[in-house]
Amino acid sequence: MLEKLQVFEVDHPTTQAFKRQRIAEAGWEQPANLHFVPVDFEQESLAAALTRSSYDPQSLSLFSWLGVTYYLTREAVFDTLRAMAEIAPAGSAVIFDYLDTDAFIPGKAAKRVQRMLGEAQFLGEPMKTGFNPSIITTELASFSLRLHENLSPTDIQERYFQGRTDGYYACEHQHFAWAVVE
Question: Whole-angstrom Cα distance, residue 177 to residue 68?
């Protein structure tokens, strides 16, 4: 069954080259259903990149887009989400995470998030963009994505971290969104 699933690993060309090098060094065999698609979301459309690959725009798709939105400009995030809605058929979905806008306001951001933003800046990968959870539904709807679920940090804590005894807890200001192509 898994052999029928086509996986398209889409990432920045430099990061993807590093991943591929590590896979080769480990001696792992690349499954035939795994396709690497390099794309710089700030420079190129996701749709253009997928068109160069064996991606089938007629097949239902799930885009798992985690750990990316905060590193891109608002325009690049929306361009990529719009491309997902345009290239994938109705019923396809995207799961993505995002920081709310308060994460970028020093007086409102949690200390842990302030440190995280500072470390990312120091490492040369600044976090740039947050979104307002109260209007993201309308923003996504403007390019045919229906927000099915939008988990707040409290929701994430309750769903995924409840009862943990190891000190881990949900990241303040981080949201998990699930949108469906209409």
Answer: 13
Contacts of residue 28, Cβ cutoff 8 Å, sequence gap at least 6: none
Segment 76-84 long-range contacts (CB within 8 Å, at least 24 positions apart): 76/41, 76/42, 77/41, 77/129, 77/131, 78/139, 78/143, 79/41, 79/45, 79/46, 80/41, 80/45, 80/46, 81/140, 81/143, 81/145, 81/179, 82/143, 83/45, 83/46, 83/47, 84/46, 84/145, 84/181
Residue 2's pLDDT is: 75
Q: Which residues contact 150 (CB under 8 A, 6 or more apart)?
A: 133, 136, 137, 175, 176, 177, 178
| Low-confidence stretches of the chain (pLDDT beneath 50) | none
- Burial of 48 from C-beta contacts in 10 A (0-12 / 13-18 / 19+): exposed
pLDDT of amino acid 145: 98
Nearest residue to 47 via CA among 96, 10, 20, 19: 10
Residues β-bridged to residue 97: 176
- Write down the residue that tokens 């080259």 correspond to: 17
Measured between alpha carbons, how far is 174 from 154 in angstroms, rounded to an integer? 10
pTM: 0.92
Helix, strand and coil content of the chain, in percent to the nearest 5, comes to 40, 20, 40
